[in-house]
Amino acid sequence: MGYDSFEWPAQQQPPSNGVPRSAWTRQHRRISRWHRPYTAVLIVLDLLSTLAASMIADAFIEKSKSGFLDKSWWFLQGTDLFGFFAYLVLPLGWVFLLWTSGSYDRRYLGLGSEEFKRVVRTSVTVVAAVSLLSFATKTDLSRATVGLVSLSSLLLILFGRVFARQVLHISRRRTGHGAHRMILVGTLPEALEVYTAVTRSPAAGLIPVAIHITDGYAAARGIETPVPVFAGRDVLALVREFSADTLAVCGSASAEPGELRRLAWQLEGTGVDLVVAPQLTDIAGPRVHIRPIEGLPLLHVEEPTLSGPGWLIKNLLDRVVAGLGLLLISPILGLIALGIRLSDPGPVFFRQTRVGHDGRTFKVWKFRTMYIDAEERKATLEELNESDGMMFKMKEDPRIFPFGSKLRATSLDELPQLVNVLKGEMSLVGPRPLPADDGDYLGDVRRRLLVRPGITGLWQVSGRSDLSWDEAVRLDLYYVDNWSLTYDLSILWRTIWVVLRRKGAY
Questions:
Q1: What stretches of 268-396 adopt beta strand conformation (E)?
Q2: Between the CA atoms of 232, 235, 240 and 241, what dihedral angle is there, to the nearest 10 degrees?
Q3: Is there a contact between 309 and 392 (Cβ–Cβ < 8 Å)?
Q4: How far is residue 63's CA from residue 303's CA, in Å, rounded to a whole number?
């Protein structure tokens, strides 16, 4: 599989008495070394991005006919000093600030939005530092030039990071390179729950290779498990045997008095990461905060944020994007409408009653992709339903005409729902609206109604129709409980790639 194996030299044997070795003598050599070359690539990309930003500003100054730029610090253009600042000091300073802000921290590389947040904060720091230096040295800076360099660097760095992350994800999915081999420690149900969670996303780079159960081997007897299960073994010996680089303590095992602390002592200097997976499923990091009290780390879980300024911005963004989108794509909508009329005589649009925010019903707009007698034929196909939930799904639905299948594969049939977004009945991102003729939505499913349904959502970018009903509901509830503007933007970005791959669309 290409994972790094390791030995335990005598001088690096974990101490049995829990006394950490001197920081001056122990060697911090991590077993998983994928992040080292990956970080080196990021540094090179960031340097090239800042150099390119300086070149853009340089070219901008050359072509500018205005005199105000001559008063900026870029008046050094054409001198050796200009090249020194623009092509050496600025790129190296930028990368140094990226390093000190933690944007190369391996905990944030490859997954999540924290890496990008730190890049943006660094850009703000650079602008603030340049402004402070200009004030201290009484240098007349051109705000246009500083803004051009800052914005160009930020966009180029973010583009490079996104590109590098996509390459890493492809490598993890196809070859397993750049991933962590993980041993799960805890009761069997807890370990299997963590196993399911981490394997849902191969891009996360966490590969469980074994389970060490704490409730005795009898608990696993007769149960089929995806990886080998052990009990009563020395955990560190198990780590060596499977060449693991991460030890995950699951659920109640993390609450054993003193055991977690002693395990952390034993792992010091071995290069094995220790992570704790508490019994908090489907709760995102921003809602969880650690509040240590007298040495006891308490996890404080905040309520979901479904109101406030962020929610207001989301509503405003929905209306603006929907209005501009309908205006810009109106020619495409006209061509699609013509294609539908040529494929099958009948109405261009299909309108169906769906359940929306707070249980209110509304008519959803879609391009018609089925023959006009589709609803009458549905009763004869119920036994062929491939969905295990409230939605009717068939991969080869005979009610769909050929042009309609192309619309579904590319999700172009969903474009008229921008009208619903403009009217405030739907959102760009949210749980999919469910049919209103399937009775009341009780229990966990009803929690989906706390937010407006969306054109796209976590369900769509995670598998679409290939997911089971229970999995789709779980993803929708996760979105409701962990909503944020950043999360919405992430889902919109992922939607583009899902649509291009046409995965799970039928």
A1: 273-277, 288-293, 296-301, 349-355, 361-367
A2: 30
A3: no
A4: 53
Closest CA to 254 of 191, 300, 310, 317: 191
Half-sphere exposure at residue 86, Cβ-oriented, CA atoms within 13 angstroms? 25
Nearest to 462 by CA among 452, 451, 473: 473
Q: What is the pLDDT of residue 422?
A: 94
Question: Are 164 and 110 in contact, with CB atoms under 8 Å apart?
Answer: no
For position 215, what pLDDT does the model report?
Answer: 75
Backbone angles phi and psi of 388, in degrees to 5: -100, 15
Residue 203, token pair as written in the block: 């891009």
Are 125 and 100 within 8 A, CB to CB? no
pLDDT mean across residues, the chain:
78
For 370, the token pair is 């089925």
In this structure, the number of other CB atoms found within 10 A of the CB of residue 297 comes to: 11
Task: Tell me the whole-structure pTM to 2 decimals.
Answer: 0.65
Q: Give the HSE-up count for residue 306: Cα atoms under 13 Å, Cβ half-sphere.
A: 16
Question: Tokens standing for 445?
Answer: 């499913």
Token duo for residue 295 = 């040495």
Distances (CA, A) of 466 to 62, 169, 296, 505: 55, 21, 43, 8
CA 438 to chain centre: 32
What confidence tens digit (pLDDT) does each residue in 461-489 have? 876 666 777 778 888 888 888 888 888 88
Distance CA 75, CA 487 (A): 42
Q: How would residue 387 be classed by pLDDT, with cut points 50, 70 and 90?
A: low
Q: Give residue 28's pLDDT band: very low, low, confident or very high (50, 70, 90).
A: very low
Q: Please name the fold of domain 179-279.
A: Rossmann fold (3.40.50)
Q: Write the pLDDT tens digit of every residue in 109-135.
A: 887 778 888 999 998 888 888 777 767
Query: Structural domain boundaries of the chain?
Result: 35-174, 179-279, 309-501
Torsion angle of alpha carbons 217, 223, 225, 228, nearest 10°? 30
Measured CA to CA, the distance from residue 369 to residue 409 in angstroms comes to: 11
3-state secondary structure of 486: helix
- Label the pairing between strands 454-456 and 427-429: parallel
Residue pair 279/270 in contact (Cβ under 8 Å)? The answer is no
Angle 217-221-225 from CA coordinates, rounded to 5°: 95
As a whole number, mean pLDDT of residues 11-24 equals 45
Cα gap 368→342, rounded to integer Å: 12
Single-letter residue type at 471:
E
